[in-house]
């Protein structure tokens, strides 16, 4: 079993078709390399791009699994109605939902989720906007230092 974790910037253009296609193509490459388990934290932005793309890939490759790592209770509490609806769709179409903590939103919950994303994967794929004070950068940094992570691919935006 080969596992890919994903992390990405929350502040992306939801209508960026080119970015969505690039991500979709990278996921196809990982599927062709034998990856079967795909994990993300299901935050807004790039995580939603990832999940939607993987759900689409599951039509062609029913063997692949979408696994969500939800960092805290009511992760979507402050999200827009549109983002909440997408979150619900993603959860309903995932294969497994792992609740990392039963606590309210905090930086600590996010860090625990990021650690799990890194500890539970063979490779990391990211969409990153260059912000070094973000959870995305934190996850990339953790992956660089992790012995289990063999491959890190960053789509810079």
Describe the structure.
The chain has helices at 17-32, 46-60, 81-92, 107-119, 135-145; strands at 2-8, 35-40, 65-70, 96-99, 123-128, 151-156. With 157 residues, it is of the alpha/beta class. The chain has a six-stranded parallel β-sheet with strand order 4-3-2-1-5-6. Helix 1 packs across helix 2 (46-60) and helix 4 (107-119) packs parallel to helix 5. The chain starts with a strand and ends with a strand. The mean pLDDT is 96.
Order of helices and strands: EHEHEHEHEHE
Shape: globular
Number of helices: 5
Report the mean per-residue pLDDT as an integer.
96
Number of strands: 6
Q: Structural class, judged by helices and strands?
A: alpha/beta
The first-to-last residue Cα distance is 30 Å
The biggest beta sheet reads: 6 strands, parallel
Report the β-strand fraction as a percent range.
15-25%
Helical coverage, percent range = 40-55%
Uncertain stretches of 5 or more adjacent residues: none
Supply Rg.
14 Å
In which order are the strands of the major sheet placed?
Answer: 4-3-2-1-5-6
Concise description?
By secondary structure, the chain is α/β, with parallel strands linked by helices. The protein has 5 helices and 6 strands, in the order βαβαβαβαβαβ. It has a 6-stranded parallel β-sheet.
Strand-helix topology:
Blueprint: E1 2-8, H1 17-32, E2 35-40, H2 46-60, E3 65-70, H3 81-92, E4 96-99, H4 107-119, E5 123-128, H5 135-145, E6 151-156
Quick tags:
single chain; 157 residues; alpha/beta; six-stranded parallel β-sheet; 5 helices
């Amino acid at each position: 079993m080969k596992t890919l974790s994903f992390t990405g910037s929350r502040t992306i253009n939801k209508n960026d078709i080119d970015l969505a296609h690039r991500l979709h193509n990278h996921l196809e490459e990982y599927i062709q390399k034998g990856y079967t388990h795909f994990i993300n934290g299901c935050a807004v932005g790039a995580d939603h791009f990832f999940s939607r793309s993987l759900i689409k890939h599951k039509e062609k490759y029913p063997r692949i699994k979408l696994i969500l790592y939800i960092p805290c209770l009511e992760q979507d509490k402050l999200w827009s109605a549109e983002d909440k609806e997408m979150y619900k769709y993603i959860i309903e179409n995932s294969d497994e939902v792992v609740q990392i903590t039963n606590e309210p939103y905090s930086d600590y919950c996010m860090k625990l989720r990021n650690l799990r994303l890194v500890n539970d994967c063979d490779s990391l794929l990211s969409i990153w906007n260059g912000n070094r004070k973000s959870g995305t950068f934190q996850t990339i940094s953790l992956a660089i230092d992790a012995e289990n992570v063999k491959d890190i691919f960053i789509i810079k935006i």
